[in-house]
TrEMBL record:
Source organism (scientific name): Planococcus faecalis
Family annotation (InterPro entries): Ascorbate-PTS_EIIA_comp, PRD, PRD_sf, PTrfase/Anion_transptr, PTS_EIIA_type-2_dom, PTS_EIIB_2
Start and end residues of each PTS EIIB type-2 domain: 398-485
Annotated protein name in UniProt: Ascorbate-specific PTS system EIIA component
Primary location recorded for the protein, binned into one broad class: cytoplasm
Amino acid sequence: MFLDERSATLLKLLQHSSIPSMSAIEDQTGLTRRQIQYSLNKVNDWLQSNHYKPVQYKRDTGYFLPDAIKEEINIQLTKRSYVFSEKDRQQIFYLLILLSLEPLSLYHFQSVAGVSRNTVLTDLQRLKKMAKQMDLTIQYSKQAGYIITGNSRIKRFVIEQLIHEVLSGSNSQLIIECIWTGFEEHIDAIHSELERIEQQLGTTFTDNRLNELAYLFFSTNQLIGKGEELEEDSSWLPFIDTQEYALIEQMVGAAAFYSEWSHTEKLYATLHVISMNRIKDGSPLEEDQVFYEILQQVIEEFERLTFVHLHEKDQLCEQLYVHFKPAFYRIKYGIPHVNPMSERIRKIYPELHHLTIKSLKVLEEKLGLCIPEAEVAYFTIYFGGWLQRQGTRLDDRKKAIVVCPHGTGVSNILNYTLRELFPTILFLDVLSVRDTADYPLPYDLVFSSVYMRTNETLFIVPPILEDRDKQRLSKQVMQELYGYAVPEADVAGMMKIISKYATIHDAKQLEKELQVSLQTQKSATHTYTVKEAEKPVLAELLNEQTLQLEPVIATWQEAIEVAARPLVELGTIEDRYVTAMIESIEENGPYVVITPLVAIPHARPEEGVRSLSMSLLKLDQAVDFSPDKPVRLIIILAAADSDSHLRALIQLTNLLNEPENIQQMLGATNKNQLLEIIHNYSKEETE
């Protein structure tokens, strides 16, 4: 009686613990209910043929094996009672061809896998195609048997991947027997050497990676014995001076290593030790402080995107650092690493994974790296664990997207304002109308500056929210989500009470600040301030060079061209950016008219922005952007990214929120008068 791969996997799962339900088995194995039932029948047949009781089921326990037989089952799962799957045979044949010192024939593969000659030939044909995709060639000759030719670095990459797959598989021990029988003492000795390196470095490697490295270093020893040495790589040379290299030199001198290692091979091993996942880390490197500071910025960005205050951030940063330090070297030097949980994490925590990707943009920009999916998944786990630890959940919050004809510029300040206004809503992305059609994540709410068709709850909002807009929107959202709206605060009543006991010097300003304060308290339990470093204030962008006053211009298209002219001359935007702004309005309508008489034209950064900049054109006579939208103030916004312009844009929003400020600007007769108003709002934000 033989077990196939599925049945053996299911039996091993039940060997270690009970499984509460059929759906839990589906989740753990990835099999369908029908496949599971078939495998359970095979497991029961196998158990009964070996004089064991079959798998049992109880409502309060689930599926389980009787305790008395759990330990005995290990004895039964040997090569004689297991049918290797196609994937198993592929791994075995690939590793044998790569590592074996003796010539390999079809008989060797038949003997080790227990299958027919035709099956081996079919497997080898598939393997040849797989190898060809990696620019490797599998050949056969009577003298040398089956060999593999190609780049030595690619061969190492394939071996690393195969070792990871084998050791993390459910039937790893059986495959190990096929490849490394007779070398157990050597591999155990290398394992002990790696534990000694741990102690010397003051680090603790994860068990899985330590085990993988023991097999990898023995495999490297086998390759060197075959004459399969790596070519020198000058980018590795700086690691000769590290403590890790000195310890590797000692290690390869041990009896377990029968081959002579070159300094390139020692550097190869050094890089793997430096890039190993670890539980703690006490080994200093030059980059340590840089890593730590950037990871702090990643945490800040995650807080900003999720509107969550993370507790004990220093401890979290330390954990991220311990993970990222070796990950950095894996990424930089192309050392392969597979995270078996990646797909599962994306599936179970899509929003958290998505926001983690966005948070890691800081890391990618600072270090000039592209973070691979396997590493993103690890960061997702860390952030998810930290949120769970402090009792915070993202998956029970309403998810929202912000939609604007262009996803940058004014839409980013709208996104920022909405996050501040509704901290309990998880804002996922700022999108264009077209982008929403293919957006992969589920969402509940849409905040859009233009009407659009959607099956989700839609809120139409102006691109820049004034206080009255915020109050109205808060009521709408509260009514939609919770069935009630928070009643308006009685500011007038409060003013009367204050006037009874205090002298009010500026009643209008006090009333305004009370209104804003109470609105903020209603809409948020806490706020998170965006880090303002390297974000210019409004007065740095709207200055003597970028302001213009003109009496009249015939068309809105010409008005945009004139308004943008200082930026073209300064070289901060290209001519095509001006064209893109005009085409956007022609396609989507005058959405850039954000308040009466004021327009803020903008387009995407990739459509011709060289650096962050703004310009302002004031007209004595309005130009019509549409029959009902006359404009006298045109403010060109050229955002180089989604973040650096926010400080200035917040100040501009505050300025335009006051109708009297707009009137003063319209009444200005020279640049100095305009600059005075702009400077007042640049100062106000920074004081």
